[in-house]
Amino acid sequence: MSTAIFPSETLARRAQKFLAMNGYTCALVRLTTPKEGCRYGLNISEHAKEVETLLQNRFHVEWKRDSA
To answer: Residue 35 needs a FRET pair 20 to 30 A away by CA distance; which of 7, 9, 50, 52 works?
Structure first.
């Protein structure tokens, strides 16, 4: 599974909507507590490379990849 990391909930939700319009599913997750700031991610489990390319081109996001 890969996680696209966003600086705000708004941007993460926009990316989630963008992916849904293109037929991809993902899960929105909060990566920090309210005291730590506002960082959200999208967990992507299927078609990770395709989704990564789409999001990188459109939103310029950071990535966290789980080793499996």
So the answer is: 52
> What was the pLDDT predicted at 37?
86
> In the CATH hierarchy, which fold is given to the domain comprising 2-65?
Alpha-Beta Plaits (3.30.70)
Q: For the chain, give the number of residues.
A: 68
C-alpha to C-alpha distances, 7 to 1, 47, 65, 67, nearest whole angstrom: 20, 23, 17, 23
DSSP tag of 37: -
8 A C-beta contact, residue 8 and residue 38: yes
Q: What is the mean pLDDT of each run of 10 residues along the chain (68 residues)?
A: 92 96 96 89 93 91 77
The full set of domain ranges for the chain reads 2-65
